[in-house]
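[INFO] parsing input record for Segregation and condensation protein B
[DEBUG] input buffer:
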Amino acid sequence: MEDRKYIKGLLEALLFLSSEPIKLSSLAKSSGIEKTEARELLDELILDYQEKEGGFLLREIAGGYQFITNQLYSDALSNIFKDKKRETLSRGTLDTLAIVAYKQPITLTELDEIRGVSSRAMVASLISKKLVKAVGQKEVPGRPTLYGTTNDFLLHFGLSKLADLPTPVEVKELKFEDFNPETISITEDGDELNPDFDTKLLPEELQVHDELEAPLAESVSDPSEVLEDKSL
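[DEBUG] output buffer:
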């Protein structure tokens, strides 16, 4: 019993000291136990913090485990830490991100066809913010780049894996604001690239000599409209 209590405490300490999610296999190896036992102890820790209703919760997120702040205190914490970095996305770029998430891997041309407007600047912005990345090339003439979401996408949206995404029907029932996590700010203006991002890292089809062109139009105002129309 004492060994079990010790290992449970060790897992808790390892997670507390980490600023990134830790995979189950790594936690098991670090604590010298099997993955099945580690998962059982982690499940107990998740319940312990949930029942405590304190400032922290333990969650399975982005393929690992990590402590997060309790959403009960999000408003107060936002006021205290006003300078906390938040990614800023326009509604059109959030639409684009939603399509990539549900249809990945997807090409730029396929994105444009779904949205009915150019998505090049939006994809470039999402890549610069580490929410989208190039994941390969489609085996068709021209071999266009395929795009998919990143691990940072899972972190921002509090997901353990892509399978945890709400279904298109569930997204449709959400208000637009409910689709917006605490680490994302929504703006009516166009997006800019992350100033620290090297544009030379963009795929060739996103490279431009001048500034990225502005979106032609915002054809939708809610990601659920895109998902519903295209029957994802």
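[INFO] The two ends are 49 Å apart (CA to CA).
[INFO] shutting down worker
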